[in-house]
Amino acid sequence: MRVTVTQVREMKQKGEKVTMLTAYDYGTARIVDEVGVPLILVGDSLGMVVLGYESTIPVTMAEMLHHTKAVVRGAKQAMVIGDMPFMTYHLSTEDALRNAARFIQEAGAQAIKLEGGVTVAEKVKRIVECGIPVMGHIGLTPQSIHAFGGFKVQGKSPEAARRLLQDAQALEQAGAFAVVLETVPAPLAALITQRISIPTIGIGAGIGCDGQVQVINDVLGSFADFVPKHAKQYIKLTDIIRKAVIEYYGEVKAGTFPTEKQSFAMDESMLAELR
Ligand code: KIV
User: Fold this and answer.
1) Please, which pLDDT band fits residue 275 given cuts at 50, 70 and 90?
2) Is 183 in the same domain as 76?
């Protein structure tokens, strides 16, 4: 049985921490799923850490669906959440519904995530009414990076903090089953967590959230362009990959790879017939 939204809500009631990680391919999703991580987000961070874009803004529905399908094939237990790309839920409620449905119907995800609070609450309500679980995302929402003027901590003034609380409450009211709080001061995230009944999942939002999410490439140290302050590299995969590639390159050039171990034999008599 896959993890359900009811189970995620219950985790908050029981005081059980919610873990979420991103994944963008079959193999990684399989490992994350086998470990027992309950939520896998196919984040539009895909654009930056996999596709090499400068921001998440160029990411398309086609790219998201392609990777979500791969993750769904790899994850048997976890809830797979598809991240709605920039401008796929802004123009109209109909547009938002159609694109949300594609994640569920075409890609096989169990839920979608979108950015925004009060301004998207009506759309969240309609998507939820149509039977699609929605995860909200507020704070430093990367699709608004140009409006924010960079990757800056959000909710630092009393007005901004009040707006973030209202955003979280609007998402709760609209029927979202959880909300991501990104790059928000830890005490504010803790306060929001206390004030709403749905789980808060923090990234750069401190320990007071109901759960945590990280981009898998940050956890693995496999994205060399930059490491956000909120990330902890549990391993430095770039170094390990570089070492393996250097060794392979060297062995091929030196003629020491492949050896017999990586080769296939053939009956000498068969070969003789060709001569
Ligand atoms: O796209 C993403 O990976 C995200 C997480 C950082 C929450 O939105």
Assistant:
1) confident
2) yes
Residues 251, 225 within the same domain: no
Which residue range forms the structural domain that includes residue 263?
239-274
The predicted model gives 214-218 an average pLDDT of 98
- Strands (DSSP E) contained in the chain are 18-22, 39-42, 79-83, 111-113, 134-139, 178-182, 200-203, 211-214
pLDDT digits (tens, 9 = 90+) for 256-274: 999 999 999 999 999 999 9
The answer to whether the CB of 203 is under 6 A from ligand 1 is: yes
Distance 215 CA to ligand 1 centre (A): 7
pLDDT at 151: 86
Residues 213 and 170 reside in one and the same domain: yes
Supply 227's token pair.
Answer: 């490491």
- Are residues 243 and 112 located together in one domain of the fold? no
Instruction: Domain count for the chain, please give it.
Output: 2
Say yes or no: CB of residue 170 within 6 Å of ligand 1.
no
Report which of 130, 154, 128 is spatially closest to residue 141, judged by C-alpha positions.
Answer: 154
Question: pTM (2 decimals)?
Answer: 0.96
The one catalytic residue in 129, 159, 182, 268 is 182
Give the pLDDT mean for 132-149: 96
Amino acid type, 84: M
